[in-house]
Structures
1.
Amino acid sequence: MRSIIFANYIARDTRRLGATMDVEQSNVRFLNNLVLNLWDCGGQDAFMETFFTSQKDVLFSNVEVLIFVFDVQSSDVQKDIEKYQSCIETGIMKYSPEAMIFCLVHKMDLIPKAQRDMLFSKRKEELEHLSKPLKISCYATSIWDETLYNAWSKIMSLLIPNVGQLKEKLKKFADHINADEVLLFEKATFLVVAHHMRKEHNDGNRFEKISNIIKQFKLSCNKMQSFFRSIEVRNSSFAAYIELFTANMYIMVVMSDPQVCSAAVQLNINNAKRYFKDTDHSGTM
């Protein structure tokens, strides 16, 4: 999961990765100088026991976000629940009670499609009850579709201190150029940072699908030692432009009028860059 989001792996390449041993710590830099200190903790019993004894105060102090991943096909669901309760009761509530908590019910692709919603709803209800009085967010995920990007986009959006300012600026920009939709993607991960929509769309997962498509395209460019800077797609119904916007973000502009002049859209994007430049944030979490 971490490799797909932050190391540009595609799903099939993760098969050659080994299990996480003990704690793997990495610093992920995005949006200029905002640094995410990511601690990937192995789920094996021996490591979990260590986490809640000698390393408890180190792991759970000053935590901004806890992301607990459940294997939906685990052979011992009760033990997984007990591990989660230990994280909440003896870790988060004691050392970082203000932390945001996300539960990912992972590998949902292994469950028959007709059963997924019911199984996830049941697991979500159980986890919310166990987490009281803390509030949690739950997502059903898989590395084989857009659900993983959907979850991580929402998580990252909550980590950005000035995301409200970004959304307000996107609204003004979209209104000014009469765009149907405007999105900002983080440059390294291509996760959705913020968006504004002026025209309803019936595909709620379109952002994550776009992220996956562009990621594949970027990987193809890298193999040819080329740098992806911009792309334009148009048909009889719309025109879409994706372009490097700031040092740390790409922008996507969608217009209903496919006859719109590309040069005019690009001019508007270039003029807006100065307006968004001061929204890059510096910090560590």
2.
Amino acid sequence: MEVFRVAGNNSKRCVILFGWTGGSLRHVAKHSALWSNLGVSSIATTVSLQETFLPRDDTGLRDKARTLLDTATLELGAEEVVAHCFSNGGCLLFVTLLEELEERRLQNNSDKKAVVVPSIAGTIYDSCPIPSVHPAHGPWLLMFATPFPWKEKMMILGDLLPHAIQSTLLHPFQGNPIAWFGGLRDPVVNSPVDRPELLLYSRGDWLSRASQVEKFASLRASQGARVTKHEFPPDSPHVQHYRMRPDEYTKAVTDW
């Protein structure tokens, strides 16, 4: 995790950059320049393959969500958070953070020592989301869509493959163990009330299809979110829109 504080910024708002699965923090953090130029402090983080596809209670995903909230409120003094989500791994962490927010709201209702619970001021979805995520996707994503050296891939595969096989075999009886990803589409978990949402995508993205993103946009609009879509040309690949077209990307976010 890395914090990018804007000097002299008295805003009570910050941005959390929820990086994509297996992404480099250095690459995710490049998007902080966009927000710094707009005068908004930001926090960048990433999500590992294990955090994406293994059971949440066996990884540090919940702790990561808590740390992000503590950093936003205690270090940056934020009362509002803009969620800037990249790919489906970023969305998984965002849903986990939403659940942590709800826990803190409930704690405030029952505890005299209230903690700061920031509101979500808006959400940006970059190259996401797809309808569902399943542990069986993990080994495939690892082998064909990550730049890790083969030795590292084999080590990660040893973590992912047993759970992927077990989850696939038990799916008819126990369902998808990452079904909680559906919270992204649940208006109770991911409240759309008076919230602007921006979806950035392209038809050249073979991981998060444009048709899937557009269906999500329609759903959120029907739930009451103020949805804006920006489609990049087909030569703009998955989570590379800012790198490929920084001016167009910046304008889309600024106008939003």
3.
Amino acid sequence: TLMRALEQLYALGALNDKGELTKLGRRMAEFPVDPMLSKMLVSSEKYGVVEEILAITSMLQIGGALFYRPKDRAVHADNARTAFHRPGGDHLTLLNIWNEWKDTDFSTQWCFENFIQHRSLNRARDVHEQLVNLMERVEIDVVSDPDNTVNIRKAVTAGFFYHTARMGKGGNYKTVKQQQAVAIHPTSSLFEQTPRWVIYFELVYTTKEYMRQIIEIESKWLLEVAPHYYKAKEIEDTTMKKMPKAAGKVQETAYVDLNPYGPGKD
């Protein structure tokens, strides 16, 4: 709704109490992407990871059609996909895919060997070029700190603190503010792990509400990036100290009809 959108813009710092664009809001408005993505892009300057967030934003824009999985080479495709996983979550995995492709000088053959749709990565490359030009317009230097995964995840948190979920008893996740039941998407690099706090890019509903493209965060980051939105009492870990085994897995054994690979090979 319109009111919810305005509330979100206010929470992101794009609007002031009178509903007028702030200086931050004017910078965010230069980027033709979702407000949370634009806040993430602007926040990357503070954390010194502009190049990394540019790449992540570009990769998030291509949706789920990144990998393909031919039936006669399904095991190879699954192994290739898993090899890209990086600790910390899916945003860092997407960054790893981008960097490896970039190191090959954007090779089509590399995409073929890794069961990645070249057309999707080309789309990400086009978005990346546009975003780099817009960074110049808002006078943000494209600095890089590729090994600083904490600051990369903090920059993501600065834009997506609205999309926070935490694990409760029994290994089930709920969003922090709305207390909505959610689950880690089976295609996530964190699916079989037990992150206590996560931030997700979007929710996708199939048999249940799944969080797609997630990263693991520390709850104290929420107070750092959004002290106006979260209070210390809200993010206290008042549940169990010890995580249950395999708590990050979806507990049900029912069949989930999901295709993480997109529509097929180019």
4.
Amino acid sequence: MGKKRKRGSIHQLKPPVTYTPISLALKKSIATGKASHDSEKTAIPKTTKQSTLGKSKRKLKTLNKKRANSHLIGVFHMLNKQITLEKELGNAAEVAVLEKKREELGGIHAYQAASVIGENLRSHNTSRWLVKELLARGLQPKDKGAKLTLLDVGALSENYSKEKSWLQVTAIDLNSRHPFVVQKDFFDLKHNHEQYDIVSLSLVINFEGDCKRRGDMLILAKKMLTKNGLLFVVLPLACVDNSRYSTRESMKDIFAFLKLSIVKEHYSSKLAYYLLSNKESTEERPTTRTLHKRELLRAGKSR
């Protein structure tokens, strides 16, 4: 028998200082006959390392953007609440100081820009949840050319462009940043009774710091709905689960007080969704709550 051929070692290949890509290393080993598939040491491609590092940096950058935007939005809401409270107490000097701080943040323009960025980073728009629920309930008109009328309050952009064939949308905002969105105050539409099949108040009510105007907003939205129309309300989850004046049950009491029935409610990690019908609920919820007065429901300085 001939001598047994000694199996080559990967260390005999004399690799360069930097790793070469796997495919190139494999070609070299086959050409020299000094390494087999079994003995080849798998090298991590340099391009893979760079790609992984790049992804990590992008994730960190995205995370920092989210935190910065969330902080700005949170501070803006806090200042709005403080300004409303000081106005109620008649402290004009303190109101001026707080309003100056709000402007130093960038005012409404900075707030809207942060909202747009936050929406893009979430890769989710609350309008998608509403559309999904409308389709699930078979509410898309069957007749050709027929459309549901929808009032989108506080719109930052054209949220329902994909549904143009069956939704006739009127989008409004106090400070429009998009050509499709009409610059108008919601309360200027007080005579538009029974005009819309759907009214959307997505992340709008929480922006209003005045408790009375929040109640008036809900009352006006209901008046704008057609018979059996739908009201879509979205709030930050903290406004429901971490508020001194609001809980999940108290929200249901408010809707019952307005004679609105809950079609569906959903709570994500950040938001509370409510789809409400103008058809009065048969469920009886005796309540003494009022829309225009704060009632302490939870204690705690952190709330």
